[in-house]
Specification:
By secondary structure, the protein is of the alpha/beta class. The chain folds into two domains: 137 residues, Response regulator (Rossmann fold, 3-Layer(aba) Sandwich), CATH 3.40.50.2300; 148 residues, Response regulator (Rossmann fold). It is 41% helix and 19% strand. The protein has 14 helices and twelve strands. A seven-stranded mixed sheet has the order 7-6-8-9-10-11-12, with helices on both faces. A five-stranded parallel sheet has the order 2-1-3-4-5, with helices on both faces. Strand 9, helix 11 and strand 10 form a beta-alpha-beta unit. Helix 2 packs parallel to helix 12. The longest helix is centred in the first third of the chain and has 24 residues. The N and C termini lie far apart (68 Å).
Length: 326
């Protein structure tokens, strides 16, 4: 390299350094709000949502800040929490759970929202699956009513002698309000009768669960909602004490001691949510992001719980299990 070339190169480097520093300092820091119907955990560094954002180039503390708001099962807090995030002028909001998603939608018609929710079109979160419209797009937690009826079928497979199943649900939650008729029809085809017990407030659980045992239920189906998620330990402890086989929609409840679960892989939903957030931060409108349906479902069985219940899981069912917890 001759002297002239060297001096030009050195001068370019000197000029480029402050320009690069200035760009980094003035570069936009994305602000993402996370609103969840249930308790904490989404803010942990190893969480799939944050991991996927990092892979996409969004690093917390560098070019990304996050605000987390957890209702911890108290749905009455959601409107205020959603309003807080809107007032903080987030670039986008991730809403986890149908109640949280509806609260976020009511709080703003401008801030982009990515919802993880059941039946986004049926609950009015989006205009349609293909064309969401407005400021909300979503990742559906199920593919329709057939998922919950599938759980009932699997419960019958696990407990062939069962004749009556208790259903722990929240009838005021829009996605659940439509469950009674199709579940009753599915139960009839399986030779089962159902006893629905409603829980709309944390204080309802003991009376509801006591009602299940007084109704002489042989097993218990727990619907997916923020209350049931937040109080899964209470439900599991009661069911174990009273020898009630349970089926949930999420694997975490089985890890906590539930008998079995069947549902979408929630980690995958969170990773896909991060992809949608990335697209929105790069100026894609939520209205142009079709609602994604879950593609991966997991059947998880806790054999330790089965043993505690004195239950032998049929080999034909074990062959279909994705994960066995010993």
């Amino acid at each position: 390299m001759d002297r002239r070339t060297f001096l030009a190169s050195a001068a370019g480097s000197v000029l480029a350094a402050p320009l690069a520093a200035e760009t980094q300092q003035t570069g936009k820091v994305a602000r993402i709000g996370v609103l969840s119907s249930f308790g904490g955990g989404l803010d942990r560094s190893g969480q799939p949502f944050l991991q996927r954002l990092r892979e996409l180039g969004w690093v917390r503390g560098q070019n990304l800040t996050l605000e987390f708001r957890y209702a911890e099962g108290n749905l009455s807090r959601l409107p205020d929490l959603a309003t807080e995030l809107v007032q903080l002028k987030m670039d986008a909001i991730l809403a986890v759970g149908t109640p949280a998603s509806l609260a976020a939608q009511r709080a703003t018609r401008a801030t982009p929202i990515v919802a993880i929710a059941s039946d986004p079109a049926g609950t009015g979160l989006v205009a349609s699956v293909a064309r969401p419209g407005g400021n909300v797009t979503a990742l559906a937690t199920d593919t329709g009513l057939e998922v919950v009826t599938k759980r009932l079928e699997l419960l019958k497979d696990a407990v062939p002698k069962a004749s009556r199943v208790g259903v722990l649900w929240n009838p005021t939650n829009p996605p659940e309000a439509r469950l009674r008729e199709p579940l009753t029809k599915a139960a009839r085809a399986l030779g089962l009768s159902l006893g629905f017990v409603g829980v709309t407030h944390p204080g309802d659980f003991i009376d509801a669960l006591t009602g299940v045992t007084h109704d002489r239920a042989d097993a218990l189906l727990i619907t997916e909602n923020s209350l049931n998620t937040e109080y899964r330990t209470l439900i599991v402890d009661y069911a174990t004490k009273h020898k009630l086989p349970t089926v949930f929609g999420d694997r975490v409840s089985v890890q906590a001691g539930g008998l079995m679960s069947y549902g979408a892989d929630f980690s995958e939903l969170l990773k896909r949510a991060a992809v949608y957030i990335d697209k929105i931060l790069k100026d894609t409108r939520p209205a142009d992001l079709p609602v994604e349906q879950p593609t991966k479902f997991e059947l998880v069985v806790n054999l330790k719980t089965a043993k505690a219940l004195g239950l032998t899981i049929p080999p034909s069912l074990l062959l279909r299990v994705d994960e066995v917890i010993q």
